[in-house]
Design brief:
The protein is built from eight helices and six strands, in the order E-H-E-E-E-H-E-H-H-E-H-H-H-H. With about 200 residues, the chain is α/β, with parallel strands linked by helices. It has a single domain, classed as Pyruvate-ferredoxin Oxidoreductase, domain 3 (3-Layer(aba) Sandwich). Helix 1 packs across helix 7, helix 5 crosses helix 6 and helix 5 crosses helix 8. The protein is globular, with a radius of gyration of 16 Å. The two termini are about 25 Å apart. The relative contact order is 0.17.
Amino acid sequence: MKNLLIAGVGGQGSLLASRILGAACLSVGMDVKVSEVHGMSQRGGSVVTYVRAGDQVASPLIPEGEADLLIALEQLEALRWMGHVRPGGAVVMSTQIILPMPVITGQTAYPEGIADAVCGCGLQTYVVRAHDLAVGLGNARVSNVVLLGAASRLVGFAPEVWDEALRAAVKPKFLEINRQAFALGRAALGAEEAAG
């Protein structure tokens, strides 16, 4: 059984990432359940998707403390959801910061030292500059796929499985940029050691 959680902010593409991940699991013959939990996604709120895959999956929801892997598209979302990861599990988090509405309006401050806190929580943690890599490709919107490419090294599956999943989930006119983003992410994690 693979219990995979993707957490981000509305507009970051966590739903597309979950579709790609689900397609990869399906293509290797796993039973897959995907569940989406939306906050105020239209206003930059939290968006979380659960992807569960195995021989037989009864429920799409992952109980707290049972996720094998958290893919966090934004730093605060990594902090918010790391409690859902099982002991010995992993976190792949982006360095990107997106200020939530209470911070923008001055009601609260964005927490400092999030990456250090996540890296110090005892989980296998990888920090990826996904947004910067996507900007380098000329399209900041593919940072979700950059991060998924990094996480794919931990999920497993052969490269051709991931390519088939990209073709299944991404519109043809955006396929090539997403392939490039995915490859950048895989290379980024391949070059990094676990930070925590």
